[in-house]
Amino acid sequence: MRRRWLVTVAITMTSVLGLTACGGGGGTPTDKASGGGGDAKKQVEVFSWWTGPGEADGLKAMRAIFERENPNLTFFDAAVAGGSGDKAKAVLQSKLQAKTPPDSFQGHAGAELQGYIKAGDLEPLNSLYDELKLRDVFPAQLVEQISTGGQIYSVPVNIHRSNVLWFNPAVLKEAGVAGAPKTIEEFIAALGKVKAKGKIPLSIGSEWTVTHLMESVLLGSLGTDAYNGLFKPGANWADPAVTKALDSFKTIMSFAGDPQDDWQPAAQQVANGEAAFNIMGDWAYGYFHNPPEGGLGKQSKTDFDWAPSPGTEGTFLWLSDSFTLPKGAKNRDGAVAWLKVAASKEGQDAFNPKKGSIPARKDADTSLYTDYLADSLKDWGGDKLAGSIQHGVSVNQPWLASINEAVGLFLGTKDVAALQTALADAAKANTQ
Amino acid sequence: MRRVRAWLPGLLLVAPSIVAIGVFVYGMLGWNLRLAMTDQHDELSEGTFVGLDNFVGIWDQPRWHLSVQHAVLFTVVFVLGALVLGWLLAFLMEKGIRGEGTFRAIYLFPMAISFVATGIVWRWLMNSGQDERAVGLNRLFDVIGLPQWEWFRNPDWGMAAMAIPAIWQMSGYVMALFLAGFRGVPEELREAARVDGCTEWGVYRHIVLPLLRPVTLTALIILGHISLKVFDLIVAVSGKQIITDVPAVFMWVAVFDSHDPAKGATIASYIVLSVAVFVIPYLIWSVRRERRR
Question: Quick one: A262 and A411 in the same domain?
Fold first, then answer.
């Protein structure tokens, strides 16, 4: 009898122990990694979503500079795969809620960081900006657009342009379109001409690429100042000018081909001469241009060409990847050392040619940037700036989710009035 | 003391799992329901009790209507499709074909694949490109002269197409269930029916099928609850697009993109409720049946 008791108790205890072991086993892998290093080198955990070709190479180049300048620190690459950081942001969210932030994490500069700022997850970097005199090397309008209440919370590493019209010169010629359309009206006329030839006038990808298209149409139709005004408190999204822009958007969408799985197949349709136009950010350049492992190996200016999206010449609809300093970072000094590399001319000039973007700094070595990137660098120096919607500059994450929802529903209903109401409601809910 | 000796060891043995399920299943369910009844619409605010406001308010959102319609269409097509196809496969198998074991394994294999892998393959198979742009199934249909489809990109019937990979994956499992059921029907009953002049079809219609009601019900419950919770397949095929939105995807967007915990918890509660509608009557029915025995 006693033995049976003993067995029972033993089994119970082991199962309880087993359970708690399971609970504890899920601990962070970083603990192990940092513990293994011993006392000699301290580790800096940098969280990003740069795992694809080009971007991962750029990160590696910056990492090499960081490790050379900081021999006492090791770089721990905590990257989570997935385009535009969808999955990475979900992982980051749980890390922040568990109060185990990485030492520095990637985020789109601008309003996307507002959620983290409000939650008190980030330290302001004004002192770092003063120390490195960053206000002098970044464009003033950029610094203004990433400041919240006079504070700056991130260091922009690169700049991408959202308002780029990619087109196939041969298809345009065949359709009798003289060159890249300069206005929304010209664009619609050109789309009509291409359609008459039986080609796809405008290629699109999954739903987010349509939001991406919409921001270019809004900017092209409203003009830079009115566009930037849409994101200020009390902005009027119910304005007739917005209605006109959205009507144009609807007309343009009526020329769109079958939605592709993502932006790459949509860009490929232009490269292969199946489609005439595609509006996508300038990361598409690398995809068009790079040799076949990571791209399509096409010749710029002959197989594909580019222009600012219709009606937006002279404005740079920008977005930027930036790094932050989370509160409670385990290795704060290491994180600051990383931010210094990310902000430096050397760091940005190592990273950007590989990633296919341009540096946020005005003093970059122009000889490193050729072809499309040379154009982009020139425009970045002289153009007016407007912040991207889809890529987190102008709107915060909840606002963007509402906009994406409105655009997704619009694709089913084609109802401009409902789209405008939903956009106005989203603005009202998020600008207070 | 003797009484205690009778039940205590048993209780101790199951106690760990009771505690674990209590905390990690029912505790979490309760916590989720409490969250759904607050107005915590961002991660920072504390949230006050608002009763069923969120549960009522969500019906004002066009996206919710869309995702519920999608879930219903998906469930009907998937459950019926898998049941019919599974039954047919089992029926053929039962007729004593050669190499039954091989076929059984072939039909069961898809079950060993995760929905994500299935989704990625079928995303290509169900590509909506047509004619010279056709790939996957449309390409095959083009070559053999069948009509080509928009598949899951059709705004009205897209979710029916989305059910095809799910049917492909689960019908083998339903077949296994039915096959076991068929084998459990005593040969004497069939003989008797045949002697009474019943056709072979009649034997299945009037003898085997009624005896298989418990199996059918089990299959229905299993397929139904998978279908109402479906997330991985949808995300693998089309991502988080509105055109294939279902409650589970909407919930993910609400929590991680909109940063609205209360909304996410509300949708989660509705998913649990819809599954409960399937499962609870089944539990009651099976408990009653156990008692009768």
Answer: yes
Rounded CA separation A420/A428 (Å):
12
Instruction: Scan for tokens 């580790």, then name that residue.
Output: A43
User: Residue A27: helix, strand or coil by DSSP?
Assistant: coil
Q: Indicate if A115 and A176 belong to the same structural domain.
A: no
Cα–Cα distance measured from residue B55 to residue A122, given in angstroms and rounded to the nearest whole number: 34
Residue A306 sits in the same domain as residue A344 = no
- A259 neighbourhood in chain B, CB within 8 Å: 128, 153
pLDDT tens string A36-81: 444 457 899 999 999 887 888 899 999 999 999 999 999 999 998 8
Does one domain contain both A192 and A333? no
CATH number of the domain residue A237 falls in: 3.40.190.10
Residue A44 has φ and ψ, to the nearest 5°, of: -115, 120
Task: Tell me, yes or no, whether A398 and A249 share the same domain.
Answer: yes
Number of independent structural domains in chain A: 2
Neighbours of B222 (CB within 10 A): 19
A·B CB contacts under 8 A: 79
Return the residue in B12, B135, B152, B237 with the most chain A beta carbons within 10 A, the one to mutate for interface testing: B12
Q: CA neighbours within 13 Å on the CB side: how many for B176?
A: 14
On whether any CB of chain A is under 8 Å from the CB of B250, the answer is no
Give A353 to chain B, closest Cα distance, Å: 31
DSSP assignment string, B64-83: HHHHHHHHHHHHHHHHHHHH
Query: pLDDT by residue (tens digit) across B118-151?
Result: 999 999 999 888 887 888 899 999 999 888 888 9
The pTM of this model reads 0.88
